[in-house]
C-alpha cells in the first residue's frame, strides 16, 4: 500500500518544511505504519511529495529529533517511538507559524524587559554577536549566520533576567531553526542584522519603547522571509 501513498492535500500555502513534516506524519498514520517499519527512500519520497530533497532532509531531521523517525545511516529511515512527554519534542513537529507566533510574543517581552535589566557585559556580548552576524552575511554563510543570530537572541533573553523566558526561547528556537535554514536569504539576513544593531542601541540606552519597535520591525521582516520561502523549493530532479 505504501507504494501508492500520496499526501491527501498537496501543500501550497504552508512553509515547505512544515508541510513535509505534516505529510510524513500523515503517511505514518494513514498507512498504519508501526514502529520499525521502513519509509520509502529519500528520492522516492521527495518525488511523491513534489519537494526538493534538501527540504525533505530538514523535515526528516526534525522528525528524527522528535523521535517520530529513526534515522539509520546506510540503512534507511524507520518509524520511531516519539517521546510525547517532552515539550521540545512536541514542538519539533508543530506548525511553524504557530511556533513563530509564540516566539514573537516572547521576543516582545524580552524587548520590554532587557533594556531595564541588562548588564554592560551583556551589551558587549550582543555587539559581538552582531559583528559575527555581519561577517557571516557578507560571506554568504547562512548556517553560521543563524548560529550567531541564535546566540544574539539568547543573550538578549538572558538580559531580561527571567530564567523561564530564556528556557522557553531556547526550546522555540530549536523548533524554528530548520525552517530558517531552508528559507534564509543573504540579503534578508543583512537587513535583519541592521535591526539587531538598532535593538542593541535601544537595550544599551535603557529604552524599552525603542527596543519593542525594533523587535516588531525585525519580526515583520522574518514573517516576510517565511512567506517568500514557502514556494522557493521545487520538485527534486
TrEMBL record:
<protein>
    <submittedName>
        <fullName>GntR family transcriptional regulator</fullName>
    </submittedName>
</protein>
<dbReference type="GO" id="GO:0003700">
    <property type="term" value="F:DNA-binding transcription factor activity"/>
</dbReference>
<keyword id="KW-0804">Transcription</keyword>
<dbReference type="InterPro" id="IPR000524">
    <property type="entry name" value="Tscrpt_reg_HTH_GntR"/>
</dbReference>
<dbReference type="GO" id="GO:0003677">
    <property type="term" value="F:DNA binding"/>
</dbReference>
<dbReference type="InterPro" id="IPR036388">
    <property type="entry name" value="WH-like_DNA-bd_sf"/>
</dbReference>
<feature type="domain" description="HTH gntR-type">
    <location>
        <begin position="14"/>
        <end position="82"/>
    </location>
</feature>
<keyword id="KW-0238">DNA-binding</keyword>
<keyword id="KW-0805">Transcription regulation</keyword>
<dbReference type="InterPro" id="IPR036390">
    <property type="entry name" value="WH_DNA-bd_sf"/>
</dbReference>
<dbReference type="InterPro" id="IPR011711">
    <property type="entry name" value="GntR_C"/>
</dbReference>
<dbReference type="InterPro" id="IPR008920">
    <property type="entry name" value="TF_FadR/GntR_C"/>
</dbReference>
<dbReference type="Pfam" id="PF07729">
    <property type="entry name" value="FCD"/>
</dbReference>
<dbReference type="Pfam" id="PF00392">
    <property type="entry name" value="GntR"/>
</dbReference>
